[in-house]
């Protein structure tokens, strides 16, 4: 569905990426709630619903993803769609205060009520989701995953997104066979992100700077490669973070470079996935410091890419969703505190191989158990169960039809 130029500005750059994205990440200081772009956001979702409607069969299950499309289920329900509709939010769910910062916070919450099941990344997100409804008033908690709010029943669950760990490991092994190894003799630390202000890239550079100041000895030197291609460059906050990052990496290199040693290599362009997998495999440390992140798949990809006999160490922000699953194996840090980041780097750089192996094994097991297939299957099963409850409620009220709902998953074509 093509967007007009005005829709691109008001829907995509505007409401989705200058209102919802910062709000969902708790950056209410960046919100522009007065802009009136919400009308376009809803209109685009309605248009998409109209386009999709004629293609829907009775047996279809709809699984809608992410913050660009939150009102899509409500728009489909307006057109009479009774199919099971699920939603998965890839970002964090914010605290109640951030939701209240939207001038239409009740409408925002009501968009979720049209879904049979709202999927979030972590149990912390589920707790915040329920809290947002409680704070909006007139809410009754039915269970830890279900709330009645303004006569709507809303079901929610945490479904941490997974990766194909074995597939990624194979790609990384292939990549190091074909890639030229880096010339640097120093330990390699890596960061891979979209250049986004939520990813805490300046914070990690400040932490690395603190580490270098505290550890001037030559044997403690680490070469840090940060890959951060631009995204959403037409949004002002993204230009600001780019400038800050360029200035900081220049500052760190100015302070600590030596003959044969450049502390920070900052790559501001896209790098192919297989090349990234090889770099992750070669890295001794991954430094992943988001200020707030739904999951952070790079953290999981780094773990998957490692050689189990000599694995690197994951230094991870406690504000990444991945920290909930990986806390036993990763070195968790507070990205707001450069001393905490520096301490995490030091710990990772000095960790003995036995501890590295044990931590890696623990994390790899978790990745395999909760891989991408598990994520899709467990979500869809929970969606089916929620939809059955809604349809039987409708049927007992004399509305809707049980016809299409007999067993939606039997019509579902295997794994996603
Ligand atoms: P993103 O914010 O894009 O995703 P992330 O999970 O880190 O963040 O990355 C998604 C994918 O993009 C990964 O496969 C990663 O390898 C790739 N990627 C990231 N940076 C890259 C780069 N510089 N070059 C090439 N590839 C890169 C959103 C949420 C996250 C959530 C995901 C999935 O913000 O919190 O983990 O969705 O739910």
Automatic annotation (TrEMBL):
SUPFAM superfamilies: UDP-Glycosyltransferase/glycogen phosphorylase. Pfam families: Glyco_transf_20. Belongs to the glycosyltransferase 20 family. GO terms for molecular function: alpha,alpha-trehalose-phosphate synthase (UDP-forming) activity. GO terms for biological process: trehalose biosynthetic process. This is Alpha,alpha-trehalose-phosphate synthase. It comes from Hyphomonas polymorpha PS728.
């Amino acid at each position: 569905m093509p967007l007009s130029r005005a829709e691109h500005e008001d829907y995509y750059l505007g409401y989705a990426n200058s209102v919802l994205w910062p709000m969902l990440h708790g950056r209410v200081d960046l919100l522009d709630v007065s802009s009136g772009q919400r009308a376009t956001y809803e209109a685009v979702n309605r248009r998409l619903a109209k386009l999709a409607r004629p293609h829907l069969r009775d047996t279809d299950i709809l699984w809608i993803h992410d913050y660009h499309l939150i009102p899509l289920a409500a728009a489909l329900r307006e057109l009479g769609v009774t199919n099971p509709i699920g939603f998965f939010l890839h970002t964090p769910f914010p605290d109640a205060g951030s939701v209240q910062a939207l001038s239409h916070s009740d409408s925002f919450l009501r968009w979720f009520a049209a879904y049979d099941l709202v999927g979030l990344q972590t149990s912390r997100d589920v707790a915040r989701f329920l809290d947002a409804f409680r704070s909006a008033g007139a809410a009754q908690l039915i269970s830890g995953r279900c709330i009645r709010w303004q006569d709507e029943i809303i079901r929610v669950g945490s479904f941490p997104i997974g990766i194909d760990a074995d597939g990624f490991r194979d790609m990384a092994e292939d990549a190091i066979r074909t890639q030229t190894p880096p010339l640097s003799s120093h330990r390699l630390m890596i960061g891979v992100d979209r250049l986004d202000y939520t990813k805490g890239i300046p914070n990690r550079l400040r932490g690395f700077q603190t580490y270098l100041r505290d550890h001037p000895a030559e044997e403690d030197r680490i070469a840090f490669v940060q890959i951060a291609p631009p995204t959403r460059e037409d949004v002002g906050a993204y230009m600001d973070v780019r400038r800050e990052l360029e200035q900081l990496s220049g500052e760190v290199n100015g302070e600590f470079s030596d003959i044969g040693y450049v502390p920070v290599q900052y790559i501001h362009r896209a790098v192919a996935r297989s090349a990234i997998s090889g770099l992750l495999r070669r890295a001794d440390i991954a430094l992943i410091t988001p200020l707030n992140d739904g999951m952070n798949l790079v953290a999981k990809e780094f773990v998957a890419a490692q050689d189990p006999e000599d694995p690197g160490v994951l230094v991870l922000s406690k504000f990444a969703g991945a920290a909930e699953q990986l806390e036993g194996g990763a070195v968790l840090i507070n990205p707001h505190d450069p001393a905490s980041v520096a301490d995490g780097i030091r710990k990772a750089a000095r960790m003995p191989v036995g501890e590295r192996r044990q931590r890696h094994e623990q994390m790899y097991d978790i990745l395999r158990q909760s891989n991408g297939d598990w994520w899709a299957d467990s979500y869809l099963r929970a969606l089916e169960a929620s939809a059955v409850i809604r349809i039987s409620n409708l049927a007992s009220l004399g509305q809707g039809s049980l016809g299409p709902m007999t067993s939606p998953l039997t019509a579902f074509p295997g794994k996603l």
